Amino acid sequence: MLKHYIEFLYPGIFAAEGSAKEVSSRDPDKIKIPENCHGFRFYDRQETVAEDGETLSGEPKNYSGVYYRGRAMTLEDVKRELPNPCNLIENMEGNGLKRVVRTIFGNFYPLQDLDQILDEDDIKRVKK
User: Fold this and answer.
1) pTM here?
2) Per-residue model confidence (pLDDT) at position 46
């Protein structure tokens, strides 16, 4: 049986940390976002119950983009708003990154094609 999961992303010391739980739908409008979470993404997993009752889980697959709580910034935005010299500017230029997200906690992550920024209306709607 194919099951859907959500992975909540939290600020970590060196990298984002996460926790996952099963959900009935991959609809972001039906997700209650934890206060200390800066983003989330969905994925699927095939699960089968064996004859002895043990649940066998496949590898996660079909990841969605990340839904971020924050603000998208271009390289020009970063150059204008952050002090020089800035490692972020060097990383963006060196890796050809056009946009990053600055999360509500101040962390920066590269924005991928499928990623989305949740605006304040999105946040209020899903926190009901």
Assistant:
1) 0.85
2) 95
